[in-house]
Amino acid sequence: MTEPQASKNEEVRSNAGLPTAPRHEVIAALNDQFRQTLRGGAVFMTASVANISSVRLRRMMEAIRTFEGFCEEQDPYGEHDLGSIKDEDERFFWKIDYFDPSMRFGSQDPANPAITLRVMTIMRPEEY
Fold first, then answer.
1. Which region ranges are annotated with the description Disordered (predicted)?
2. Domain region containing 55
């Protein structure tokens, strides 16, 4: 049985039970922090992306790190968990998923970094 998903506007509560921020904003901030620092998770690439030159991969990682092109169409839940970049006239996607620390199951609460490991996968559009 899966846990029900929280709504976009559900607030995350502090230890005292007081609301602190809408849930999607907390998740977006954690995703941005991970994407910019690569702390709190892991990065995977499809085989075709892993075969790209190291110079090009560094350039792509910098584009992902500094990405700010979130829009309603591509980020409908406001979690900053999906984006696309262009390098050498080729488009690439990156997607952040949420796992428990063992990486065996999905995270029960992506807004809680203590129980969530973020995994970013970088791929070509046809591999999504």
1. 1-22
2. 21-127
